[in-house]
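Design request, tokens follow.
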């Protein structure tokens, strides 16, 4: 099992542990919206930008960007923090490769660097405040990990792992005890990763829409 898989397994176990502990306490309370385990899908309409810094003079300082959407499988566990406050621990697994854009530079002709991002996952905590029996506004703090795939027509390119911190604001609506809808804005800033003489630093921002079934 590689390091990424070990980290992902640890994150999943953390979600389960926190959820199980809080769930035992919540069982003493009446059934409420946003409480308990939930699973679903999320569509994230996002823009990815990458800043490049290189000691190779023809590249120097550059940037690229790409737009697209990402479908993720999500799981969460909500628990009561106070009568009007709900905490939610979440895990998200991306299912698609994202476009990080490309740029050209000159070295023995026109060369192109292209960036793709894949294997995206995150774990998050979101405290929320009830604004009604079936409505919740929340803030979110998340840890993200993603793999950057960099191709260069002059060299072989390479891959790097980027970790980052995301923050978000969202609104959740309980259509019923079992069905929950969410709309959320999130921005993520990742660490730099180096391939040969060039470092890439991705950022993401966008809006997601989610549907979850709560057990």
């Amino acid at each position: 099992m590689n390091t990424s898989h070990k980290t992902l397994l640890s994150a999943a176990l953390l979600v389960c542990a926190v959820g199980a502990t809080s769930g035992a306490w919540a069982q003493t309370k009446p059934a409420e919206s946003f409480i308990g385990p939930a699973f679903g899908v999320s569509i994230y309409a996002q823009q990815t930008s990458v800043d490049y810094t290189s000691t190779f003079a023809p590249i120097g300082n550059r940037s690229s960007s790409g737009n697209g959407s990402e479908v993720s499988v999500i799981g969460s566990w909500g628990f009561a923090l106070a009568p009007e406050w709900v905490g939610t621990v979440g895990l998200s697994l991306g299912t698609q490769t994202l476009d990080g854009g490309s740029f050209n530079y000159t070295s023995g002709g026109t060369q192109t660097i292209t960036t793709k991002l894949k294997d995206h996952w995150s774990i998050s905590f979101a405290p929320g405040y009830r604004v009604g029996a079936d409505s919740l506004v929340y803030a979110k703090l998340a840890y993200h990990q993603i793999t950057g795939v960099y191709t260069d027509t002059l060299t072989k390119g390479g891959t790097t792992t980027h970790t980052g911190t995301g923050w978000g604001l969202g609104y959740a609506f309980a259509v019923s005890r079992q069905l929950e809808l969410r709309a959320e804005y999130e921005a993520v800033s990742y660490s730099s990763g180096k391939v040969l003489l060039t470092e890439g630093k991705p950022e993401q921002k966008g809006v997601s829409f989610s549907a979850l079934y709560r057990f």
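Comment from the thread starter after seeing the answer: thanks! DSSP finds one helix and ten strands in the chain.
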